[in-house]
Amino acid sequence: MSFRTALTTTVVTSCALALMAATGCSSGSSGSNISVGGGANAGGTSGGNSGGTSGTFFGGNGGTAPAGGTNTGGNLGDADTCVGETQAGEGVPVDMFAMIDTSGSMDGDASGGGTKWSAVQSALIGFIDDPKSNGLGVGLQFFPKPKAGVPAMCTSNAQCGTGGPCFLKACFGAGLTQLFPCDSVADCPGGAQCAAWGICSADPTLACRIGSPSDPTCGTCTPQSSSICINRDSCEQADYRNPAVSIAALPGNATALKNAINAKMPDGATPTSASLQGAIGYAQTHAQANPNNAVFVLLVTDGVPTRCDTDINNIGQIASQGANGNPNVKTFVIGVFGPGDAMGTANANAIAQAGGTDTAYIVDPSAGNVSQQFFDALEKIRGQQLSCEFLIPKPPPGEQLNYNQVNVEFTNGQGGTTTIPFVGSAASCDAQNGGWYYDTDPLVSPPTKISLCPTSCGMVEADPAGAVDYKLGCGTVTVPK
After folding, report:
1. What gap in Å lies between CA 346 and CA 331, rounded to an integer?
2. Is the CB of residue 336 less than 8 Å from the CB of residue 379?
3. Nearest of 252, 250, 301 to residue 142 by alpha carbon
4. Among 35-39, 56-60, 196-200, 207-211, whose mean pLDDT is lowest?
5. CA dist., res. 101 & res. 271, Å (int)
6. Which of 90, 171, 204, 343 could be stapled to 180 by a disulfide with Cβ–Cβ 3.0 to 4.6 Å?
7. DSSP states along 87-150
8. Cα separation, 68 vs 99, whole angstroms
9. Domain coordinates of the chain in residue numbers?
């Protein structure tokens, strides 16, 4: 019997557009896919005014806004004893940069027919065309990307350079059911042989060892005239920082986005670390140029990292640095995983939590309408982002905002009001109290946005009839110590 094995793919993917609308909450709403391995404020008294004389809630002309983030005059309940000026929270324009995994495993089957990638394509295009997405700023890139100078196909190791070796040999025997590349027997699991491989004429989904005995289920073992370079995928974050489509508002950007999505085919491995780092880098540069916008990254993947730095703790640190950076960029994650892929789900959740978005959205390719599952995840991300990012309150003309006298209140659809406590930063958010924070420390630079912690964001998102308001002039309420 000949040595043969299925041409299965175990490479992972990450494919998802998290698109967001730019309108926000206001006062009334809130191919050759070969597997290669498995209260007292610092500014003074009620005016918070160190240099001027006008204004109860703001520093006067020539005054210096008091420092924020270290308020000690408030605890839960203090806002009720102060009558301040109320101002409706104004949602920020929202921009999303999607880093989409198009590794070879995205070519796997999906429930209802088609592949995981075709289901994701359909959902992305449907979301882009959805009128609710008009006004969203959307850009995207795909991963993996090839190393510079590495050819698409090869016939020798020398042609691959740093992307080699050329996939001309594979491991056979020892119970293997996948095609593992090798250059010598030292690259194979115990007892397996490293040999030139070909395709079975009777079943082109099977690989065979050149020169092995004939097997009716395989037919003729046809040698491959060319193959791929094994290490062709780039691990340079700069390669992923350059977008396939730059961020721009829908519907104007729709054609460019859909053309890029339709032209892409799954292939390669899963360099999650480099691609996420590049995506966050691009998003932060965009945020610096658009300081009033909420900018976030959407990472879509269908497996665990298989290239570059594969340590999930290090990848989580990349997401954390984005969420807590200046400007801060959160990372949402959509994972396309079956119920048995506990590691994939755990990794996706770890990245999302480190990226400031609590948990990943999981799409099960073995159940139901996969495209609809993915579309629903995109809608939830859009709704969450629109409910949780707000512009800084506007002081009267000629006055400065006292950052120690800002409170955020949520009035639900039944008229009940909750004061959301200030927590200082995204890193201080917790599931029990929720909270809000400025995008930058006022001691370092003037903030441009207010963000809600995931728990408070969920409360707002769950009540579309509610409204987020600011109360200005009262000592900022903080979480009790």
Report:
1. 15
2. no
3. 301
4. 35-39
5. 9
6. 171
7. EE--BPPEEEEEEEE--GGGGSB-TTSSBHHHHHHHHHHHHHH-GGGTT-EEEEEEE--BPTT-
8. 35
9. 58-92+392-472, 94-145+233-390, 150-223
Q: Is-contact 14 130, C-beta < 8 A?
A: no
Integer distance in angstroms from the first to the last C-alpha of the chain? 73
User: Can you give the C-alpha Rg of the chain in angstroms?
Assistant: 27
Q: How many helices (H) and strands (E) does the chain have?
A: 9, 20
- Whether residue 213 is preceded by a cis peptide bond, meaning omega within 30 degrees of 0, is no
Write out the H or E segment, with its range, that includes residue 312.
helix 312-323
Say which DSSP state 344 is in. H
pLDDT in tens, 155-196: 999 999 999 999 999 998 877 777 788 888 998 888 888 999
Contact yes or no for 402/59 (Cβ under 8 A):
yes
Q: Cis link prior to 305 (omega < 30° from 0)?
A: no
Type of residue found at 187: D
Structure tokens belonging to residue 256: 């460019």
Sign (positive/negative) of CA torsion 386, 387, 392, 397? positive
Q: Please name the amino acid found at residue 313.
A: N
Question: Considering only the top CATH level, what class is 94-145+233-390?
Answer: alpha beta
Alpha-carbon distance of 414 to 401, in angstroms, equals: 31
DSSP-based three-state secondary structure for 416: coil
DSSP annotation of 427 reads G
**Structure letter (DSSP) for residue 271:** -
Q: 229 forms bridges with which residues in the sheet?
A: 166
Helix/strand/coil percentages in the chain, nearest 5: 25, 25, 50
The amino acid occupying position 230 is I
CB 273 within 8 A of CB 314: yes
338, two tokens: 């079956």
Write phi, then psi, for 416 (nearest 5 degrees): -75, 140
Record the tokens describing residue 259, joined without a space. 């053309």
Given a contact cutoff of 8 angstroms between Cβ atoms, the answer to whether 328 and 322 are in contact is yes
Distance CA 144, CA 147 (A): 9
Of all residues in the chain, the percent with pLDDT exceeding 70 is 82
Give the closest residue to 286 by CA, choosing from 234, 333, 249.
249
The 10 Å Cβ neighbour count of residue 73 is: 16
Distance of alpha carbon 41 from alpha carbon 30, whole angstroms? 30
Instruction: Please name the residues in contact with 178: beta carbons below 8 A apart, sequence gap of 6 or more.
Output: 5, 6, 8, 10, 35, 38
pLDDT tens string 417-429 = 999 999 998 888 8
Asked if the model's pLDDT at residue 204 lies above 80, the reply is yes
Distance, in Å, from the CA atom of 291 to the CA atom of 355, rounded to the nearest integer, reads 20
